[in-house]
Every structure is written in C-alpha cells, then in structure tokens.
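Quick one: structure for this chain?
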Amino acid sequence: MESTLFFRIFASETNSYTKMRDKKSRLETLKMLISSKELGNQDEVLKELQREGFQLTQATLSRDLKQLKVAKAASMNGKYVYVLPNETMYKRVHSDSTARDMLESPGFLSLDFTGNIGVVRTRRGFASLLAYNIDMVEIPSILGTIAGYNTILLILKEGANREDLIAELSEIIPDIKKTMR
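Got it. Here's what it folds into:
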C-alpha cells in the first residue's frame, strides 16, 4: 500500500514537472515562431506548432497567446499577423530553420556601448525574441529596448554601470561575457 501511494505521488509530481517543462518549451517555441514567421490566425499557429512536435488544442493556444501578451498588427506587406509586445514593425526572417533549431542555437553576437545606449547584435531573426526576454526580466538599469532585424537598442538609465548590466544580462545571454572585450 505504501509503495503504491509513493508511486502515485512520485508519478503525479513527475507528470507535473514534465507538463511545466513542456509548457516552457512550447512557449519559447511559440515566441520564436511568432518572431520568425508571418502567422495570421490560430490555425496557422497550430499547424506550425504541430510541425515542431507540439499537440495542443485551440483553447490551450489561446491561453498561451494571452499569457505572452501577443497582439495582431499590420506587417510590412499589410497583412495582419501575430506579434509579441514591442515588435509591431519587426521585419521577419524567412528561414528554412525550424523554431527548435533557432532556439537551440545562440542568437547573440555582440554588445557595444555608446553613451547611455547599448547596441546588441544578433543573428538574423533573433533580435525581437531576445529583446522580449530582456523586457520580461525588467533589468533596473534598462529604460527600454527597441528591436529591429538583427539589432537591439538598449536605452540605459543615466549613470548605469555597464559591468553590472552585463552581469544581469548574462542570466538571459549566457555567452555575453565571452564576447566582451
């Protein structure tokens, strides 16, 4: 009886952990898909997620989109597509890479400063997702970010300490310290 109860509790906790890990992976993949493809409706998003190996219902997708604060905005060609916060004018990259491939490869290339502005260079298609992650962490010394095609502008508070900023960014960008001169 005791071993059966332990197994049920262990299986339940393991299943909860797996679900949370799967949700985190799904949300990261969803952010990458929205950042890299022009997706105009939930059916298109569901099909892309299925290609990435995720099986979910439209209701789950709706909850995920709400949690990520996804909106619709006109793209450069006038089509209304899903966008992450602060990327309404983001120029998408048409890539043959899957979202999973993009998530597993490092997108960060470099960080340089001039005055109270940091300039982050990324690989094609990574700027918006990286800026989104920086915004979500709410680093105190960053007033805001602006993401472009492969560049992010970090607007820093007056007198922000660059070494402290790099240390805070290393939580999001593990390789950042390796690229600093």
